[in-house]
Amino acid sequence: MAFSQHHASPEYGFNDYPSGRYDQYAQYSYDYTNDTYHNDNQGVQYSQPSKDANGNGVQVHSEPVDDDAAPQNIVDINLQDPILAVVFFIGGLSAAVGHHVYYQRLHGSLVTSENQQFWAIRIGAGLALITKCGLVAAVGIAAVQQTWLSLRKRSISINGIDSMFGVMRNLWSFFSTDFLVNAKRLYLLAAVAWLLPIITVITPATLSVKSHVVEDIVDTKVPTYNFSSNDGWGVYGGWGYISGVAPEIARLFTRTYISNSFVPESPPFPDASYNQSFWGPSYKCSKPSEIIKTRNNRTWDYAEYNYTTFEQAFNAEIVAPITERNHSTGPIPLIYKSTAPTDMNNMILIGANGINERWSDDIHNYVVCQLYNTSYSVTMRFDKGIQSIQENSVKYISSQEWNNVRGKSSTALGKGACAPDPEANNATICPTYYMYHYVFQKFLAGTILSNAGGELIFQSDGPTVINAEASQAPFFQSGLTDCPEIWNSSSYQTASGGPLAFQTADKCTGGTLASAIEHLSRNFTYSLLTYSNWRNFTTEVSITVPTAKNFYYYNSRILLLAYSVAVVFTLLCVCVGLVALMKNGYTSSTAFSTVLLTTRNPDLDRLSMGNTLGAQPLPNRISATRLQFGTLRTEGSEPHAGFGMEGTVAPLENVAPKSGMLRKRVTERVVT
Predict the structure, then answer these.
(1) By the 8 A CB rule, do 339 and 319 touch?
(2) What gap in Å lies between CA 72 and CA 62, rounded to an integer?
């Protein structure tokens, strides 16, 4: 049954109002059954405290105030906090996306300076901090709404309520059992808020710096060739003919055949590579049958050689001697025979008795090496100062069709430079090419045989035959003796003690005597890059210099995973907060004013006697007291929302606007 109570507005002192309730003394009626207020007059009397004439004490008097102009206690959802939570969430999400985009832009880019690296770290850390602040703030707003919803559902000890209110700033609050048991959702929301700052540690660390070798292009000058300059190359005699090569050229050739490699140049950089193209001499070695097919005509005078064809000359000079040689004790086959007839246009004729199936099925192997002008295209590489050469292209341009007589006197043709010779069908003759052929014919021409005592002898070719022990001959100091055409001869194996004697380091490049001679000639050409008298001949090339540089490396998988987990949990927390907000029906806060207004209760006044400072730790009788937030129905006062002890609190119904229960409350204005 509904009933109403009317209140007058007498003057009371400040402490005369029960439970601090001023509004109950205004002129209104209250329906306890329906929990509603009714104005008895058009103008409501609002109690206003004021001082007396002497300024002593505070008195309350009533004065009519227009109802429409009076402060209104509207039970409604204020959208400020929900909107702020959404803004914080979107801001944090945007910072996370910006963090990813920024690191993605840096990924793989060059670290140009230490200061740039510092700023990359600072910006990344700043974006992570903004993300953390936005997400934690959104969770914090949601936690406030969940706090009041949890307090409405059940009674919780004051110690547990302290933990609920302080959990966002005090880690020890998590150890409250009452908090955990009675406010599990808030407990999880607070845990998320405490764990979110981990992203400020994980995500900035996804950007690191790694060192990689990159190739820089540097245009610089490197040594090159000038075979038109024979400065310092030769030794001359008589009226200026070439009688030999200068010591430095001889030493370069010696170093080449002994090492079975080229003489390295000084590196432009410890680690570098560049392409270089040039022309220079080299030998092309073929089988005699191939030469006979193309050039079987003679190039000599009958006064020099009484042969009508090249085939006849080769058989007489090489085939007959290599097959059998008359010795005082009987026929002794030769192991190796080579000659360079002066009128055969820079050819070296070779025959050997060692079996090499890679070259011929016959027991005898024959080779013709012709001097060519050659086009080279190579890549020079330096690795920690050690040079290697990669041959990209080696093309034989033209054979040197001039004889020994024309080459020996070639310095007079172009004053030492390359020049065409009318007496050699205008073939271009370079003195340097003649001396190149000179060192090779002296090196290759000769005979290897086993004498009557079974010793290996190298017998030089030429007008004066010189016999020497094989080990003393330059030919035996080269890698050519590793070729099967030499060591696979039965006569050599008998003299050397077995087939393994020559197989020392597999120096026979290409596996045949022909390919080994070609390789040796190209190595000698490469060695000439170090010739001191050509140091002023250079060419500009683009050198690739590998350099270790620092680059940004971004591990996007870890950053996206960390932010995704943080964003998903934050979104869930915001949803929990919005649900709590709807169930509460109004926007709550943990501000002092909220605590002040929700603790207007005589029971709490009595509980606080002797402990009004709120000093820690609280006495057990206070901390263990269980409170619940709801509708208070205490004796001597009207029902109102607030904290109360167990048994004195009824559930607080949701009075959100959508419920249609929005109404005005009678309030007081306090004036001083």
Answers:
(1) no
(2) 18
Contact (CB, 8 A) for 487 and 353: no
Nearest to 23 by CA among 5, 347, 498: 5
Distance CA 100, CA 79 (A): 32
Q: What angle (nearest 5°) sits at the alpha carbon of residue 127, between those of residues 121 and 128?
A: 90
**How is residue 220 written in tokens?**
């610089």
Specify whether the CB–CB gap between 537 and 273 falls below 8 A.
no
Closest CA to 574 of 196, 199, 201, 200: 196
- The Cα 621–Cα 610 span in angstroms is 12
3-state secondary structure 502-515: CCCCCCCHHHCHHH
Q: Look at residue 64 in the predicted model and tell me its pLDDT.
A: 44
DSSP letter (8 states) at residue 659:
G
Query: Which tokens sit at 325?
Result: 């040689």
330: CB partners within 8 A, 6+ apart: none
Residue located via tokens 């020049």: 419
Specify the residue for token string 């295209």.
377
Q: Which residue in 66, 10, 265 sits closest to 664, CA to CA?
A: 66
pLDDT at 302: 82
Least confident of 35-39, 444-448, 472-476, 614-618: 35-39
Residue ranges of alpha helices (H) inside 418-552 are 431-444, 484-487, 490-496, 513-527
pLDDT digit string, tens, across residues 432-468: 999 999 999 999 999 988 777 777 888 887 665 666 6
What average pLDDT score do residues 413-427 get? 87
Q: Is 472 helix (H, G, I), strand (E, B) or coil?
A: helix
How far, in Å, CA of 135 to CA of 570, rounded?
A: 6
Among the listed residues 147, 107, 145, 65, the one whose alpha carbon sits nearest the alpha carbon of residue 579: 145
The structure tokens 């910072």 sit at: 95
What does the alpha-carbon distance between residue 395 and residue 375 come to, in Å, rounded to a whole number?
5
- Alpha-carbon distance 540 to 218, whole Å? 10
- Give the pLDDT score at 635: 63
Q: Is 560 left (phi over 0), alpha (psi -120 to 50) or beta?
A: alpha
Give the tokens for residue 514: 């022909």
Q: Measuring CA to CA, how many Å separate 227 from each of 159, 249, 434, 435?
A: 100, 13, 11, 11
DSSP 41-62: SSEEEEEEEE--TT--S-EEEE
- Rounded Cα distance between 76 and 82, Å, is 13
Residue 418, pLDDT score: 92
Q: Count of CB atoms within 10 A of residue 351's CB?
A: 25
Q: What is the pLDDT of residues 27-85, one digit of tens each?
A: 344 444 444 444 444 444 433 444 444 444 434 343 444 444 433 444 577 788 889 99
pLDDT mean over 263-289? 94
Q: Are strands 234-237 and 626-632 parallel, antiparallel or unpaired?
A: unpaired
Task: Please compute the mean of the pLDDT values over residues 312-316 and round it to a whole number.
Answer: 93
**pLDDT averaged over the chain?**
81
CB within 8 Å of 101: residues ≥ 6 apart = none
Residue 29 near residue 40 (C-beta atoms within 8 A)? yes
Interaxial angle between packed helices 513-527 and 247-259, expressed in degrees from 0 to 180 and rounded to the nearest 10:
130
| Cis upstream peptide for 82 (omega within 30°) | no
